[in-house]
Amino acid sequence: MSHSLNSPEQWLRYMPAAQHQRQELRLVETAWDQLALLSSLSLLSSKASSGGDLAQARRDFAALASDLMQGLVSEALKNRTEDLAARAQVCIDVLVRNLFERTADIGFFATDVGVAEYLADPDPSLRPLIEARLAEYASKYTVYGNIFLFDTDLQPCASLRAVSPVGGLDQVDADAVFLRSVLQSDAGYVEHHAVHGFCGTPAQTLVYARRVHSGGRIVGVLCLEFKLADEMPAIFDSVQQGDAQGLLQGSDAVLALVDASGRVLVSGDPLQLPAGWLLPQAGSAGVYPLGHASRRYLMAVRDTQGFQGYQGPGWRGVALLPLDIAFDEASHDERSALANELSGQAQLLSQELRDIPRRSAAIQSALERSVWNGLLELNQIGDAGDAVGGGRDAAAPRELLFAKTLLSEIGATARKTAQAFASALQDLYSVVLRSLLRDAQGRAALAMQILDRNLYERANDCRWWALTPQFARTLAAGTQGCSQATAVLAEINSLYTVYACLVLFGTDGRVVAVSQPGQAHQVGTRLDEDWAQRCLRLQGSQAYTVSRYETSRFYSEGPTFVYAAAVRADVGDGMGGSAGGPVLGGIAIVWDAAHQLQSILDDCAVGTGARDTLAFVDAQDRLVRASGDAAVLQAPEAIATSRQGGRTAALGGHLYGMGQARGQGYREFRTSDGYEHGLGCLVLRHLCERRPATPAAPMVDAHAGAARVDAAHRVQMATFLIGSHWLGVEAAQVVTAAPDVAVLHGGGSRHPFLGLAQIGERVYSVVDLRSVVAAGPGDAPVLRAADPNRQMVLVRVPLEGGSTREFVLRVDALGAMLDLDRRELRPVGMAAGPAGTPLIDAVIPVPSAGGKPAPGLLCRISPQWLLQCALGALTDGPAHDVDALVAAA
Fold first, then answer.
1. pTM (2 d.p.)
2. How confident is the model over 257-265, as a mean pLDDT?
3. pLDDT tens figures, 703-724
4. Nearest partner of 588 among 525, 680, 676, 664, judged by Cα
5. Which domain holds residue 73?
6. 761 with 859, same domain?
7. What per-residue confidence (pLDDT) applies to 113?
8. Residue 489 lies in a domain
9. What is the 3-state secondary structure (H, E, C) of 577-622?
10. Minimal CA–CA distance to 717: which of 842, 828, 832?
């Protein structure tokens, strides 16, 4: 494939949603070309439409459209590659954690008394007994397909199940070389992936082996055959199940495990990617385009991050997704009000894309201002009754109407352009939001998968260690503080660092031995905990019990789980406890919950930010352990949102994406053994600070009823928005609209003036109407800094004697320029301000474009208030409650 991940535009052909957005933007560009042509048909229309402004807007929109499409494609590609990389990473890391447990298992099992004594003297008559013991082991550790014992002459002495060796003399020689190397190795384990003839299959198998000692001499080799072909499909399925909420096209991804050279060991879809296939690109970690079997794919390859220094056999996780469906977005998008609110938050975007919404708003604002000023000028021409060029030409009224109509069309096209860009930006925000929500959900599911696998091993360990012959002998002898039992417990604890303490106790509940010297004072004390009593009532060697997640006398770092299994009397086979023997006591293993839970969360939190949080919670959603900003979980809304299945939440003035999982269990653990630990994982990914969205101008016809209103009754209103309020002044008092600039402190400025601002060549006093109108919910505060989304309206107020005074009204957004019937103005008795002058003196209902319902009442700013303001006669006082006025009207 020639595609490069550094050339996003080449990926557009695979992205139907992005292609649709590009087509919409191209249609808008065509409309602008037509308007530019129309504006050149007359001098008046060209002047009114500010041809230079129109051409600049067309160029700016085209450049922005290009950048926006580039950003949309880049984010979609980044989202998908990160998704695939995360899947590949989970596949290899979960496997490596599993194999880490196998390295501990072989170390302990090789020291098993029954195994060691049998290999020291492999009497054929005892083979059924030792194989029964191997079956006991495999019934608890179900990850093993077979177990083999070899003597020092490399002859097979016992196995979990009988198989017929495969291969010829070359394979026999290869097996002998492997077994001899194990005999000669003093390593804690030997990990070997190859064809092993003694496993009875021509396929490669993963074997963990260790030499066995008895009486100070080497007596043989123990081999554990790991069910790799059984384990990997379970991992693949668990990764795919992470898409239950429809955030991804997960079921279409092909997951695989490859060796160091890139050859497929196990595939989640043998039809698309068979085992044994060589993927040369998978010989190193990365994200690659791939041509395979006449189809194009996007492939992610990941090395393991390792676990406690263990790096596994050197394999990699792989995830592939066919490009023809890679960017078919899931249909179950987040539709909450908070998710809609995110659409206006540029902080959500990457640094390179944050400028796009600002640029879009700035272009739109400039165009609205140009149209607004053009209509203002045309209205003034019409009022003066002047013909174009200074004469009374009959064509002037028609040309005036044409210019007004053209400006109206420019305004409508500007709105369509804004809608097209808003739709494209919405897609961009949706891509980013889906990516973050997927990440949050993926981390929660991964944490629970690791937790369940961890606790699965604990359930196995306690049951197997209950069969240790020394424990049965010690309990049968009734010896407290037995040095032999203490030594065995200590040895086990040294191999399995996930335990804080191991405890051996008798049928009377008294502690007989402990693994940790620091807990020696507990020997001889009686256990009255519920789990101890349940343990002594267990039936059979497959049964176990677990405490609630609670504090324990054997653990000083908070609540934990204690797993326990009954120790039964030796039935005389010399191989350890029996499923049918009477109960002599129990063994309890105290999980190091604080460190294990924290380790899982910290590992799953790699790559998150300072405001992100991963936490384990109990069945009542109470915090158990957290990584990151745990304080955010103290907000009741966080738990309430998670209980309701919400995907986004507003907490402490910030917006978060949420992921939550309760786990699926692992093998028989939590699926068929009747156990439920009650823990879940909650993930909060910080999205952005919560900021009020800029209000949109009402969508009204710029010339509503202009043709129906008699000139004697017509009033022209220049309108604008302050928060959610729609205000206006008579157009005759408006000079022009200008872009917002910083407001400087004025030494003698008095309310309601905020300071001074330069408009053109002159400096004017500024009234920020946000400081005059009572703020509604979510309205932004008054700032002196320039805001590209706001506008300034220069008004001219006539004074006595024919003079005038000019000042600036700072507004949030420009509305329509309206021709209205003065007779429809409704006087209102709004409460006067401190100087006795109301801000609003009348309201008027205005129909929306196309006969749609009215957007609300337009409130006219009182000419008397403007006059008092210009004279400096207004004094400081409470803001005017426009909401109450509108409600009353």
1. 0.80
2. 97
3. 444 445 677 788 889 999 988 8
4. 525
5. 8-82+337-444
6. yes
7. 86
8. yes
9. ECCCCCEEEEEEEEECHHHHHHHHHHHHCCCCCCCCEEEEECCCCC
10. 842
